[in-house]
Amino acid sequence: MKPSVTKLIETKREIIIEDWLNKVEEVRREHHLENISDHVYTNTNKEFVEIILSAVGHGQELCDEQLSQFTERLIQVGWPLSYLTRGLQTFRKVILDTLFEDGIDGKRNFEIYYEVEDWVDQIVNTLVNEYSGSWENTIFLQKMALKELSAPLIPVFEHISVMPLIGTIDTERAKLIMENLLNGVIEHRSQVVLIDITGVPVVDTMVANHIIQASEAVRLVGADCILVGIRPEIAQTIVNLGIDLSQFPTKSTLKKGIASALEMTKKTIVKLEN
Prior knowledge:
Blueprint: H1 3-11, H2 13-30, H3 38-58, H4 60-77, H5 81-100, H6 106-150, E1 154-157, E2 160-166, H7 171-188, E3 192-199, H8 205-220, E4 224-228, H9 232-241, E5 250-251, H10 254-264
Parallel strand pairs: 2-3, 3-4, 4-5
Antiparallel strand pairs: 1-2
Helix pairs in contact: 2-3, 2-5, 3-4, 4-6, 5-6, 7-8
């Protein structure tokens, strides 16, 4: 920023801060932040405007560094990005109104206007980048967590494991199911694997093909596969689509599937007498 504009802003610093703090109260009500205490809200806004104005005296790089740390704290406590960007729009209006009230000539007005626009735009870009980076990181971590939970292979008896599937199955998830199945069969020394599709809302040709491929892969590593959780509407869909599931056993419920798995592994459940 040009020294002449910097000097002008510094002379009006206190007026700018006071006017902005008053006007940003309207933004608070619009973004439903009344649940934040007045003390926290006021101190946060004071820190925000001080960081913005620090770029005038100490340079944009220092402002960006302080703004990054400040933004990270706000993200952690849940302040919305829309509040900060709206606050900056209010700040831009306040600072321009304050600087122009002395009746500066037209050419000087344009110079100040473009300097302030460029200054505020840099701050907006920093805020958006910080929030975007945080969201991307959060989404990535959530995606990884969902992947870990979306296709678990659970040992329920010796040599018998169950993989409960919930939700839609796309190509990426089918690949994960295949990997977890094969790794789990080896790790748990499973002889029978039950794939439970009770929680799968739709079984179409693609989903059925993925399940058949998974079953075939399990057979190649020395285990048998039972498909359980076939509801009447799923059975009707499979028949209508002409999908051939005759390659491996199917059961309507997990209970019936476990009974078959126990029989296949030559086990039985005995009720003990008191």
